[in-house]
Predict the 3D structure of the following.
Amino acid sequence: MSSAIKEMMQYIGVRARAASRAMARASSEQKNQALLHIAKVIRQKAAEIQKVNQVDVERAKANGQDAAFVDRLTMTPKTIETMALGLEQIVSLDDPIGKITPLQKQASGIELGQMRVPLGVIGIIYESRPNVTIDAAALCLKSGNAVILRGGSEAIDSNTVLAQIIQEGLAAAGLPKDAVQVVMTTDRSAVGEMITMTQYIDVIVPRGGKSLIARLMAEARVPMIKHLDGICHTYIDADADVAMAVKVCDNAKTQRYAPCNAMETLLVNQEIAQKVLPTLCKIYQDKGVELRVDGLTRKTLEENGFQNLVDAKKEDWQTEYLAPILSIKTVANIDEAMNHIEQYGSKHTDAIITNNKAQADRFLREVDSASVMVNASTRFADGFEYGLGAEIGISNDKLHARGPVGLDGLTSLKYVVMGHGEIRT
């Protein structure tokens, strides 16, 4: 790493730490004023944003990036308006900062509670989506944090113009511009420095593919809020409603293929397999989903005239496809289903379809995932759907946040003690 990069990142860290003090004491009115100003300017400068974004898009095409990559990078009038609406939505959310739990009087006479406070400085490392610059900055701002944003090199021009708009909004509300800083270099060594800056950054939130997150897991010294894989399962129990199972499992896989909460493995109880698999798998094949199946599932489907099935290998059970591919396994009972999830799952989101309350309760208690669902599509594992308003990501860790991470996930609690002159004896 060059000394220039190290000095630049240290300078950003010093300014972010100083700004975090001001953000911790900022009023809800100031934070909302900044967010509304940013939304207004985004709309005013929509044409300019698109023009700058087109520079990034053309460079990505020239570098041979595929269509999906270019699509994530491209900012259309719709995506720009969605950013502005997202800012207004975050304004409407309750400000968690400074809230104190009901005080509990102790035997000594002191009263004890907990206050919700910002984490401090958050570092966010993300790849090609420039809208993350606005979404992440807005959530950090509303939760009273300073943030250092390191977007992908492919979106550097888009991120630069968005950072300028954000800082304009901060200044308009009387908040320090340094509360939101974008790392203005495409040098990858800036990431290496950022993830070791424990004296300045309190937590890192990576938003990107497996290679990015695997690198950060290996090298980071700053704690992270992250998930590596979304290997989501749905188990259809023997006591499931067949029509419900078909509807929910169709949605869980095919509503969208790319999100991390899409179902990747379907587990089916052998007692219901003949009733549910033919109908469900016809829907999948009609939609172009490749089916990778175990022996029992193959037998059931071939008896019903199915062809073009692929034998599932061990690696299929531990693969996040993010594509129209589905692994299917027929299991003897709920224990086999839960054992499979324990062995191959990623602790992201798993669901059971059943009308048996005892089975549902077992699944809820024993499946160790960030979101566990009964009779619902795994696609609901999302900050907006959970009523969080927005999310900065999904965590399948157990500390500090778990599941979709909204405003509360970007805060911590500290004890507050209200005394009346008490002394300890």
Remarks:
- Residues 3-25 form the longest helix (23 residues).
- Residues 24 and 359 are 46 Å apart (CA to CA).
